[in-house]
Write a structure and sequence with these properties.
By secondary structure, the protein is mostly helical. It contains 3 helices and no strands. The radius of gyration is 25 Å and the shape is elongated. The two termini are 46 Å apart.
Amino acid sequence: MGGGDQHATRRYWMIQPLTRDQPVEGTMQPVINTEFAERADTLQAAIDALRHQITRWSRPGLFAVADTSVLIEHPDKRGDMDLRPLRHSRRG
């Protein structure tokens, strides 16, 4: 299998031997159209999700990344840490 085969559906593999030596028309056409439409929908959903993440992470802001020593040594648990005071700290 090639690099893109992990995303192929059962319908895709069912269609493959039926369409290699025959023209794609007649009773197979609706099956092929359905597969094509579903793959297009899946691709569009992936594009939309990627755009959402790009928008989310492209906003201006300051990202605070705590290394493991903060997580180990801080007196508060990770979920209870108040990192808001760090937003005014601009160390490079």
